[in-house]
Design a protein that fits this description.
Blueprint (H helix, E strand, L loop, with lengths): L1 H16 L23 H11 L14 H11 L11 H18 L1
Length: 106
């Protein structure tokens, strides 16, 4: 019986010290789109949340729409990309700008 208790204690200690699995790329949240592709729903959600475009209750311009793109431009003000809003070049510039901001805020 004593041997069983010792073995069980040792097993529990080893299990507690085992490294956990790394998070999957799909687990990226809107606040950290580590692998979100530009123009994907996850990317739009991250930009929307980062800049406060919508109100969080679904009452705002549809992500990716002309109205949403204009709202992003307005929120970025003088830092807004000069390329055509919504274009791949624009998305890339917005992404780079917001990632630089989040790194600077840390």
């Amino acid at each position: 019986m004593r041997r069983l208790a010792t073995s069980l204690t040792l097993a529990l200690l080893l299990a507690a010290c085992s490294p956990s699995a790394p998070p999957s790329p799909q687990a990226a949240t809107p606040s950290s789109p580590a692998h979100a592709a530009l123009g994907s729903p996850q990317w739009y959600a991250w930009v929307d949340q980062t800049l406060g475009i919508g109100d969080g209750g679904g009452h705002g311009p549809d992500p990716g729409s002309d109205e949403w793109n204009r709202a992003v431009q307005q929120k970025l003000d003088q830092e807004a990309p000069q390329s055509t809003p919504g274009s791949p070049e624009w998305q890339q510039a917005v992404d780079a700008l917001l990632r630089a901001r989040t790194v600077a805020d840390q």
